[in-house]
Design brief:
The chain is of the alpha/beta class and 423 residues long. Helices cover 52% and strands 9% of the residues. A seven-stranded mixed β-sheet has the order 3-2-1-4-6-5-7. InterPro entries: Glyco_trans_2-like (IPR001173), Glycosyltransferase_2 (IPR050256), GtrA_DPMS_TM (IPR007267), Nucleotide-diphossugar_trans (IPR029044).
Amino acid sequence: MDAASHHQAGGEQMSASVTVIIPTFDERDNVAELVERAAAALGGVDGELLFIDDSSDDTAAEIERVSASAPLPVRVIHRQRNTGGLGGAVVLGLSEARHDVCIVMDGDLQHPPELIPAMLERWARGDADIVAASRYIGGGDSAGLGTALRLAVSRAATAVTKAMFLRRLWRSTDPMTGFFLVDRARIDLDELRPQGFKILLEILVRGGEHRELRIAEVPLAFDERRAGASKASLRQGALFLAHLARLRFGKMGLFALIGGVGALANIGIMWVLVHLGMDYVLAAVIGAGATIIGNFVLQELFVFREERKDAPRLWVRLSASVTFNGIEAALRIPVMALMVETWHISAVLATAISLVVAFFARFLFHALVVYAPRRRRRTDATDAAAVTDAESAADAEGEPPADTAALRVIRAIDAEAMRPGEL
């Protein structure tokens, strides 16, 4: 039976058969505890554990040993070739799973199996195809990342990713999480092209190519690693950036191209005015003003054309864009002047440097703020009443409060947009 057919009217509790997919890499010491805790979390649910193993040690043999006494079916598929990295392992697990309802989690015990019942309960309401465990909603905690650097990199990567896929990821606070439930019947596995760690991002962007995927979230307290070593590395970071570029090079690429054209125009206007005898600061102000308007027009036509229909009105977008760019220019020009006076470099070179640094902040602001989708107003009174009842029930059940768009934008801009160097 298709997993979606289990949904019952009115959000009633349902039973669903579940496959828990666990990709592993040299995590032998975690297997016994993970199986015990996952089996306890599933309780009386009809389910199985499916390990996709890329280990170079005897993790696969340990899984087979533990499976003999496990209270539920435990399978292991050992891959001889690590195709697609962790994402490739998850896609293989999705294709080999015996059930449509699949929960993906890491094998290092940083994803607590005890959260599985909450994920199943949230999915049982029938209004979500994916339930993600988020570190960034009320009740969530990312302390398990360890260092402040890892946390900063994670938050920065999240902000950049959301900015590049605004409409698909707007309702997701943590598209980089590796702990999530997905209804396999709602995604097209053939569309997935995994590379590296961030498989949920791949599913949300490619898996929903022909239909809108509905996402819900539950809070995740990210635990510390018990055994094994972190797979994060500079190579994985490079793979992630390359994956982002493949998924949506066009949007950021067009934004960069328009910014480049604007920068050249800015420098050209300034060069002409300076050579006509105008003071370089006044020339920079005029050049910035001209390019701010020109860039906005080009972004409307080519970069955010699809987002315009869900975004605020034209005059609101224009006002926000001009205001931000004006403030940015007002801050940038004194910095440029400081570089000229202290570093003794040309005004043109100083302007070029400041424009490159400002690019990332501009892209994040326009994607997350200027073209942020408006909340659709509900015109059907019955639907509005039903939503109110559902929200009241959610509050009674202790679900974390809604993470509003405004709060997410404020956090994103405060935490990530002002750190362009971390990209």
